[in-house]
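Thread: quick sanity check before group meeting

JM: Hey all, I'm pulling together slides for Thursday and realized we never actually wrote out the predicted structure for the chain we discussed last week. Dropping the sequence here so it's in one place. If anyone has concerns about the input, flag it before I start.
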Amino acid sequence: MGKEIAAVIFDMDGLMFDTERIAVKTFVEAAERLEMPIPAEYIVGIVGMDHRRADAYISERMGGHYPLHEVGRLADEIRADYIRERGLPVKEGLFELLDFLKKIGLKCAVATSTHRPIAEENLKIAGVIDRFDTVVCGDDITNGKPDPDIFLLAAGRLAVPPERCMVLEDSQAGLTGAARAGMMPVLIPDIKDPYEDVKDIIFTRLPSLHEVIGLIGELKRGGES
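JM (edit): ok, ran it. Output follows.
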């Protein structure tokens, strides 16, 4: 990249929180309740997509229009109840990484396709909403991932040039959007590992958030040499 990193932009579901598995489970449950069953692998397939692309993906595979939003609304209710009752599963290394970024003075943002009411509730439940300089949500932009808009808006709010932003993502759509924004995409896989589809556009692939600390340390040392 050749530029010192000044900010780190985080995806939310599947990256900070182990919520994608919950999302798939609750969507399948909602679909069954509404007598509109759908294979779980189709729901895994739309991870990271905006609503428009998700609609097209599901309709193509279900052989016609599928009421994704109707089922999704019930799934959101089921998922919210699940999280309130059982807590929000936070990915290993999140708190340590946020502590490290604060210590070295890097700005932090969230860029999530999730709409603001749900995103903010989850960030509050996890106790991290105040750890970010800005939170950009799916309802803040017109074109979602894999378009770059959400990342460019986050960078603008941080007042950091795109080329000085590292983006942590688990989905193909998110990594593609980060690359299109001219940022440094770092893959940390979750329930679906898109490495073969994105290996030519990502900076690197890491097993967990823990390793991001070492990566940033290496980049800083390289920039000082």
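AS: nice. The chain has ten helices and six strands. The longest strand covers residues 107-111.
JM: adding both to the slides.
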